[in-house]
Design goal:
- By secondary structure, the protein is α+β, with helices and mostly antiparallel strands.
- Helices cover 34% and strands 16% of the residues.
- It has 5 helices and 5 strands.
- The protein has a 3-stranded antiparallel sheet with strand order 1-2-3, covered by helices on one side.
- The radius of gyration is 15 Å and the shape is globular.
- It starts with a strand and ends in a 9-residue tail after the last helix.
- The model has no long low-confidence stretch (mean pLDDT 92).
């Protein structure tokens, strides 16, 4: 199982491949002392992350290994429909899924997203416009949203950056 640690502007991304799919991308504060083994697919993921941080990529084009319940997969698929530089609330996400009573379950599933940044759970905010839970830390969520707003030319969003 190839795995590489990649330095981003907001921390170290751990990229893992399983059977020809990106199985996880997570964000860490430091690089653990572990052996790394790259692959062409992981190199492609790194290239796309470089393009994202350079403001040249808005959508990732990587094969992802979707493991999880049908509900989890629907939640993660919905995240990929949120436009770059835009945010939605958990309520709006539940409405997109035609499941308005599942807001808490959707929020919980967003928090279990195994593909940090690639599947943009950072684009989901509280109904009042506040930044809410984010596995990578709220400061990273704020940074990513501000980065996307600048690149997209939308200026400030409703969030107080």
């Amino acid at each position: 199982m190839p795995q590489v640690y990649y330095q981003t502007p907001v921390g170290v991304a751990r990229i893992t491949e399983t059977d020809g799919f990106i199985s996880s991308v997570s964000i860490l504060d430091t690089i653990p002392e572990m052996e790394e083994a790259s692959s062409p697919l992981i190199e492609r993921a790194i290239q796309q992350l470089d393009e994202y941080f350079a403001g040249k990529r808005r959508v990732f084009d990587l094969p992802l290994k979707h493991e999880g319940s049908a509900f989890q997969q629907q939640v993660w698929d919905t995240l990929q429909k949120i436009d770059y530089g835009k945010t939605i609330s958990y309520r709006q996400q539940s409405e997109m899924m035609n499941n308005p009573l599942a807001i808490r379950a959707i929020a919980s599933t967003n928090g279990k997203n195994p593909w940090w940044l690639i599947v943009p759970c950072h684009r989901v905010i509280g109904a009042d416009g506040s930044l809410t839970g984010y596995g990578g830390g709220l400061w990273r969520k704020k940074w990513l949203l501000a980065h996307e707003a600048r690149v997209a030319g939308v200026g400030q969003t409703s969030l107080d950056f």
